[in-house]
Amino acid sequence: MWHEIWNWDSLSSQTAERISTVANAALLTSLLVGVVATYAIIVSANTKERFLRAELSAADERASMANEAAARLAKEAEEARLETERIKKELAWRTVLQSQGDFIVERLKGLNAQVWFQVVTSDAETRAFASVLGGVLQAAGLDLQLTEMLNGPDAGLQVSTNGVGPAILATLIEAGIPARPANGYETGSATGQVVIIVGTKPPPTLSFSTR
pTM surpassing 0.70? Predict the structure, then answer.
């Protein structure tokens, strides 16, 4: 068919040369275009990969910062919760738990000592605590001589260091009931009795964050 359209046999050598030149140029051009296109594809792919890696790195950094912030907030929330629980515990009225009472009775039974039991009766919390503590000490066999005071010398629970005082003080502390030696009562009462002073509840210790 093409032989009928194009009479190749009638082509002159010059025409054939021109056709060959054009064909070679077209082939070379197509090859160059292919090389350029391939290079462009490779360069664009590398560029996209570089930007993708940068975006992934930035995303990882943001995620890391978010995790650090979340961990910091969680730590601060836990610290706040613990501080709230501590303050609640310090503000709660004092008492003697069943397990503490059983321990005190077991440790002090058999002493059969007479104790001068001084209580600040002007404070409701102190009266309630003294009632519970006094009942436990009496259950242990101590003879309590109650003395009511409108105001105590110091806050907290104090025990004189004469006679069986050190044993009572050590037992209270070991049971988990805050107590300390009585200031000014190292030798007990005027008659030599051990003195236990139930003062008002010490104020809570507040801590403030410096952040």
Answer: no
